[in-house]
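Changelog-adjacent note: as of this version, every example in the card shows the full chain rather than a window. The one below runs 384 residues end to end.
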Amino acid sequence: MYFFKFDFTNYCGKIFALCFSMNFRLTYKILSAFVAILTAMSVASAQSRFGNIVELDKTVHDFGDVLTTDGPLSCHFTVTNISAKPVNILTVVSSCGCTDVTWTKEPIPAGGTGTISATYQNEDGPFPFDKTLTVYFAEYKQPVILRLRGVVNYKPLPVKEAYKIKRGDLGFKEDEIKGGNMSQGQQKSGEFMVANIGSKPIKVTFKDTSKNLKISVFPTTIPAGETAKVSYTIDADRSLWGKNYYWFTPVVDGRAFDKMGIWAVTKEDFTDWSREQRANGSNVLFKSNSFEFKPMAAGKTIEAVYDLSNVGKSDLIIYKVDTDNPKAVPVGDPPVLKPGQGGKLRVNLDTKGMPKGEVLVIVSLTTNSPLRPLVNLFITGFIQ
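Full-length structure tokens:
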């Protein structure tokens, strides 16, 4: 059985028949080019908007499952200038020397497009990889983070082994998709791979999606044993702060399966604030960012209390309190503090049923402080 790292579509029968009669290298080149054209024509492509300055066709490129013998892996991100003035890409910084990057050096005119191209050398062996590109625009005050992901294998993995989360004959690699961070006023886009783990073609659609989520799959009909790419876009919403799940229901051959979620963390956008506005904003200070409880047997509820104060020049608002453990629950509404005012933040941790050993719970705050829009606190201790 051949192993391909590109998508198949049921609309391409004649092209595929021709390709399968050729050698692998020529097949790869023809199909890669053909699928690239179809993907560009797809109306379901995801977009990520950053303020009213630029829009990217995606912020995550997922190569899916690839081989050590595939050599360097390349992808492109398209930057569209949605402002009324030229936009300049100052620089793009790669997270490691294993990823080379080039970008459009000349100013991108209003309504025009530029390109960021990246090549992962694929020399690190059979491991998952997740590389970042940090993009700096002259006209946008925050860096934009792009990601390159994939899984490198020595030999092709059967789709049933690589895609173990099942929704009928549709396989996912994870039971929840990590969307990452976004700011108000932005759109967050990404992509991930799915697979047909059955023995016959399946048609895939999605329904019951959250109102801020757009999601699509290409191709919609997936041949047996092959993969498809899911693209999504999340719109920021000022009623949704911190970590939120955006749900969708996979439908396979007309049958709906259990819903799945993409999570993203939404924070305030301070990119248009002047230096004076930032200096006059709120600023949160904690006496200690960690609450430690004494060694104890499981069964009690612990109240973690954090003393905080607003050392800024405007009211401090904590939009949202999240925890990474469902047994840790914030108590009441977080305080709104005037400049110079102090207060307390409380989180209850129910230790009933918790396993023995060290405990570490992360409590994440989303605030209106331009200096600390996201704050992490900790609950630590030991269950005997």
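Structural remarks: The chain has four domains: 1-41, 45-156, 159-271, 275-383.
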